[in-house]
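Today's session is about reading a structure prediction critically. Students often jump straight to the picture, but the first step is always the sequence itself: look for stretches that repeat, for charged clusters, for runs of hydrophobic residues. Only then move on to the predicted structure, which in these notes is written as discrete structure tokens rather than atom positions. Here is the chain we will use throughout the hour.
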Amino acid sequence: MKTVFGLVGPTASGKSDIGKILSYEFKLRIINADSCQIYKGLDILCGMPELDDNHRLYAFLNLQDKFNVFEWYEKAVEEIEKCFQDGFIPLILGGTGLYFKILQEGICAIPKVPELNYEISEVINFLKKEDAQVLNFFKDARRLNKCLSVKRSTGNSILEYQKKNIKLKDYEINLSALIPEKKHLHSNIQLRIKKQFEMGLKSEVDNCPAFSCVMIGYDEIKKRAPNADEIMFIKTKQYAKRQITYIKNVLKKAQIFDDSSVLLNFLRMKFNNKV
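Below is the predicted structure for this chain, in token form.
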């Protein structure tokens, strides 16, 4: 069975630095697993690493483009297969825990369907008549609208698609996680925000066309918040905490390291065994 390496961690943990060093030392391709770094146009805000030909799935979408987790999965699998065809070690690197979860556990292939936006009471009434069983599994309006759209578009319940899980069969996912000590991580976050403003973050955001954005700092800078850097620091710490919780509670197969040097040497050893 072929081995696919994964490196996950909270924002500002130092993942990209490790990937960069390893890319110099090994015949390696880095496949992006960060849901913000798939977009181009806000490189400073999303902490885009220095890219070369061996970085894949970075900055390939416009900010207005829609892109879901299944589309990422399909593209990541394509890149993994190309790595082995071309004689490269694949390293999946990023902070979006859900991407690593579906690589390990698989994903259901739900067809693309039109978006619906009914109020919760309306969509529940429709589903009671058209697909009542889903009401036992989903509660929020967004998911229920998706269930209704799938039923109306395909004639099948979304639950039928969820039974058909697509999973990597020929690959073993060897996942490591970098989770620095909290004080060190918070210091990294603060330094990164300071550097982002020095690199021209305000100008980057000001020149960015309007779009629906969930990147931390975008709204604060667009709205000229006087303490945007402080708000970014608080929100980024909170986000990092959520990432760590997800890694520990969901990605339980990950081998966790708190020291980047120890992790780097561990991966060197693993890669040497594959060369």
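Discussion point for the tutorial: The chain has two domains: 2-108+166-274, 120-163.
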